[in-house]
Amino acid sequence: MKLPLLSIPAPRQTVSRPRRLKHLGLSAIGLALGALPASAATYTYTGLGGDGQYTTATNWLPAAVPNTSAGDVAVINNGAAVTYTPGGDLTIKNGGILQVTSGSFTQAGGNNYIQLNGNGSIVVNGGTFNQGTASSTPFNLNGTTGNVFQVTAGAVNINTVFAMNVGLTFSQSGGAITVAGNETDFSNTTSTLSGGTFTTKLITGVNGAAPTRFDISGGVLKLTAAGSNGIYGGGTTRFINFTPGSTGQITFSSGSTTIANVQSFINQGVIEYNSGGTGTLSNFNITSNNGVVTLALAVPEPSTFAVAALGVVGLMGWTILRRARPTV
């Protein structure tokens, strides 16, 4: 005996919340990719052209000079010495990136700019980045928005004023940056030093109206200007900030800077702790040795830790006794 076939309705298909979010995420990525120039590509330096020049097409794979102003990515990672001889500015924008991993990049003289001009990036995570071989070579990081200058390892040598103001996110977590020009200007930027050494004669953040902060969570900021105290202007909304738990330092090696000068920077809010004008002299440790004044966060005395530990032990003991007390 055959049983009649039952008509079972097909289950209703629904999109779960995670899948729906996934679709939205893919759509967002698609929109972001669609915003990039259609011709953007990654070019890796090979040096097969034989002349060491950035502007020689056969030195790259694929065989064309990267158009970093249209979003191309130029990667130097084969240990070669690459020279950019200006025939005009080297402009990096629209998602373009110049990345140095090993070897070196050198701008050779000439009064032309290396400029980040809106959503452009310079990334140094090894090797050497030489901005110019002459003091007349400008280094212009004054773009609009979205610019990035990131150093994680290697060496960066800047032969002029390092004007990293307007629209720039600067971060250094390793390596060594040396500014041979008169000053470093961090006005209107997001700047973070978390490792490595940053050496400059002067540092200033006064050239701009927007709030500006140079965060130090690690590494060493070395200020070397002779006859100067190393920091010009600042305070209130533009200052150098030690973040909580920072292991960083500022050294003043001009020979004229005194502990009293550094204390004055703290009292005026030019150097702060945890931003917002909360820094006091008690937050810092200032020492002087052989003409070099060093500023770092104060380390709590061992007795402070001991008192805190006793407090924790006492609280735990009280909690245990309370739990063990019989109820009536």
Query: Roughly how many Å is the radius of gyration?
Result: 27 Å
Tell me the fraction of residues in β-strands, as a range. Answer: 35-45%
Structural class estimated from helices and strands: alpha/beta
> Helix and strand succession?
HEEEEEEEEEEEEEEEEEEEEHEEEH
Mean pLDDT across the residues is 80
Specify the helix fraction band. 10-25%
Envelope shape: elongated
Count of individual domains? 1
CA distance, first residue to last residue: 74 Å
How many strand segments?
23
For the structure shown, list the relevant keywords.
16% helix; 4-stranded parallel β-sheet; 16-stranded mixed β-sheet; alpha/beta; elongated
Account of the protein in words:
The chain is α/β, with parallel strands linked by helices and 328 residues long. The protein has helices at residues 17-35, 259-267, 302-324, and strands at 42-45, 60-61, 73-76, 81-84, 90-92, 97-100, 104-107, 114-116, 121-131, 139-140, 147-158, 162-163, 168-179, 184-185, 190-200, 203-204, 212-223, 231-232, 238-242, 249-252, 271-273, 284-289, 292-297. The chain has one domain. The protein starts with 16 loop residues before the first helix and ends with a helix. It has three helices and 23 strands. It is 16% helix and 37% strand. The strands form three sheets. The chain has a 16-stranded mixed beta sheet that branches. A four-stranded parallel beta sheet has the order 12-14-16-18, with no helix packed on it. Strand 22 (284-289) and strand 23 (292-297) form a beta hairpin. It is elongated and about 60 Å long.
